[in-house]
Amino acid sequence: MQHDEIQQIFLLECDEGLDLAERALLACKDGNQDAEAINSIFRAVHSIKGGAGAFGFTPLQSFTHKFETVLQQVRDGDKPLTPALLTTLIRAFDVLTDHVSAIKGQAEAPADGPISAELEAIADSDGAEEPEPARPDPVINETPSPSVADDAANDDLEIDFDDLLADLNAPEPAAGGHVIHLRPTMRALDNGSDPLLLIRELCGQGAIVRTVDLTALPDLDNFEPEGAYIGWEIDVPASVPRTTIEEIFDFVGEACGLSIHEYGEEPRFTDFPQRPVMPVAPEAETAATAVPNKAEVSAPAATVASTGQSVTPPKTEAGSPAPVPTEAPAAGPTPNAQVNAGPVPTIRVDLDRLDRLVDTVGELVITQSMLAQRLSGAGVAAEDELSQLEYLTRELQDCAMALRAQPIRSVFSRVPRIVRELEAETGKRVTLTVEGEATELDKTVIERIGEPLTHLIRNAIDHGLEKIEDRIAAGKAAEGNVRLAAEQRGGHILISVSDDGRGIDRARVFQKAVDRKIVAADARLTDDEIDNLIFAPGFSTAEQVSNISGRGVGLDVVKQAIQGLGGRVSISSEPGKGTSFSLSLPLTLAIADGMIVSCGGETLILPLNNVVESLQAKPGELKRLSPTQHVINVRGSFLPVIPLITSLGIGETETVSEQSVLIVVETESFGQIAIQVDAIQDQRQVVIKSLETNFRPITGIGGATILGDGRIALIVDVEALASAAHSPRELDLAA
Amino acid sequence: MTISLPTVIDRRAVSGLAVEISDALAKGSHLQLDGSAVQQVGQIGLQLLLSAFKTATSRDARISITQPSAAIMNAAKISGTLDLLGLEPAHAA
Q1: Of A112, A299, A435, A464, which is most buried, counting CB atoms within 10 Å of its CB?
Q2: ipTM reported for the complex, 2 dp
Q3: Which residues of B touch A294 (CB under 8 A)?
C-alpha cells in the first residue's frame, strides 16, 4: 500500500471519527451522558491525533493532543462533564473539524489559539472551576438514533497508521532475519556500560524494537540508579548477518541476558508483555521521521502502569512473525479489546471500480432488454427464462446501485454545527430535531446536496425563526424549532427543512417581487405562487444584507442545485406557524423512469418525474396566440404548448391540433408546460448515459439511453426545453 | 510545577532527580519535566523517566516532558519508548 493510499484511509477515518465524536457529544448534550459516549469521543480524537502524528500534520496533532488531554481527564473522572465544559468540548470539536478540513485542503487551518488556551487552562485546573463558555449554549435535540452505544462496535478507528507507514518506511523483517532478546542484568550498568548504545548500534543496521519489557521497573521510591530495569525484544532484518549481531554484543559478557534466534525459531517470550512493534528508523535518520506507535495506549502514564497488559498485536506481513500473545496479568480491557468486539466486516472499494460495476450492470440491463425484444421478434417463447433473467438483472442492478448509496447522515452531521454558529451570530435559540439520518442516497447526490441543504438551514434560522423577544410576544417558546428530516418515498428521497417561525409574509414577498419587477403590480397570484417567488433569482426580503443568508443569491441557487440533481423543491408556509421546504430527490442519477415518446420519426424519453399527465385537447381547449404559439386550457389554467419536433429541431413545423398528443410536464422555472409529441410508446426504467462524457453537452438534452431494440434514445431536458421556449435561444440538437 | 532536567542525566544526576521528582509528584497534580537542556541520556536516564511516569500513574498525578531535546527524542526513539513517555514526533522538529 502506498503512502497516499494510507493517508486517504486516514482522512476517511477522520471523517468517521468526527461523525462518531459529534454524535457522542450531542448525546451528552441531550442528557445521554455515559462512559461509552465519553470513550467514543476520546477514541475518535485519539485516533486522529495518532494519524496526524504519523503523517506529520503538526497543527492537527498539537490541537488534538490538547483536546485529548481534557477528554482523558473527563474519561478518568478527574473532571466532571459540566454543561460549561461540554460547550467548550463542542467548540473544540468544531475547531478540530476545521483542522481536518485544512489537511484535506478544503480550508485554511483554523485559528485555534483561544480554544487551545481554554483547553490548556481546563487541563491545568483542579476541576473546581472552568472557564465560562464564550458562546450561548445551543440546544440540540437529536431524535434517538443508534448513535453512540449502538455504534460502539464501529468505533474501530484505531487503524494503526504508524504501523502502516512503518510497513513502507521501515526495513521489512524478512525470512532469514533474527530476533534478539536482550535483558540487561542488574549490574549491566556498572563501569559506565550502557546497553542502550548497543540497541542504537543495532537500530543503525535497520533493527526494530518489537517489545519493551518494563515489568522490572520500580517506582521512584524504589529506584536504584545503578540498576538496570528494561529489557527488549528486537527484530533484526536479514540484511544483518548473525556475525554482525554477535560482534555488536561481543563485549557484554554476562552483563546482559542475550539470545539470538532466527525468525520463527525464537522461544516463547513469556516473560515479556507484548506491545506492538515499534519501528525505529536507522540512526542516520532524524527523529523527525520517527513514527511512534500509539495504537495501544490511551495515555503514556497509563501505559507504564500497565506494562503487564496484553495488547492486540499489530498485523504482520508474511515472513514477519506475529508477536507471541501472552497472558494478561493485569485486569481491565484495553481499548482494542472493546473495538474487537465484532464490528460488521466492511471493505473499502475504490469509487472508480464501483462506478465501473454500476456501468456494466447498466449495460447488462440494456442487453437483457435487447435480448428480450429480439427473442420476442423471432417468435421464440422463453417467457419463464426471460422473466427470471429480468428479475435477476433487476436484483443485480439494485445491489449495484445500493453500493453507491450512503446514509445522509454525513450531510446531516454538518447541521448541528451550523445551528450552533447561527445561534451565536443571531442570538436566537434553536432546538434542532434530526430524523431519518440513515436514509440512503446516491453518493453523487450526497456530495451535492450539502450546500443547498446548508442554505435552507441558514434561511430557516436567519429568516424563518423570529427573534427571542418576538417569539415570546407571539406566545411561542423562546427557543425556535428547526426540523431536518429525510425519508424514502417510492423512487424518491424526500428531505424536509421545517421551522416553527413566522412563516412567509406574503404581502411583503409580493411587494418585493413587484419592486423588483418580477411580477406585475396587478398580478393575481395564489398563496403558493407568492411563496414560490422567493425562488426567483436575486429575490431577497432581508431588511439588510447579512453574512448568513440574505445576499439574495440563496434560494434560487438552492433550486438550481436540486434541479441539477433531477429533483424538485417545494415550499409550504403558514403565517405565524412556520415554513417547510421539501426537496424531492431521485434515489440515483444513473437510472430513471422515463416515458418513451415518438416525435418526427425519433424516439425520445421524457423523465417521468417531470410528467404530470398526458392528454389530447378537447374542442375549444387549444388557443392560438400566433402562427407558432399555442396554449391549452387545462382545467382553467392556460399552459404553453411546445412542439417537441421544432423545439429540438428534429423536423419541420408541425401544426398543433386537437389530434396532437400533449404531455403536461412540471418545470421548476416556468411551471407546467404541455409538450406536443406524435405518440406515446411506453413507460420504463432507462439507464442514463451521459452525453457530456460520451459525446458533448447538448442544450435541451439531458442524456441518452439505449433501448431494447438497440437504438439510442435521447432524454429530454424538460427544464432546458421550457427555458428555450421562453427565450429566443435556439436549442442545438439539429446542429 | 516544572523541573528542569540537567544537561546530562547520568547516574550522579539520577539519584537527586529521583527524589526531586518523587517529592514534586507528591505535592502537585501536574508535573512538567523541562527536557530542553538535555544533551546526553542513556539507559539510566531513560529508566528514571519511565519510573517517574509509572510513579505518577500510581499516585494519580500527571506528568509530562516539555520541550524534549533531540537527545531525549533519540533515546526514546531507539528504545521504543516514545509513546510511553508521552512524546510526539513533532517534538523533534
Answers
A1: A464
A2: 0.93
A3: 83
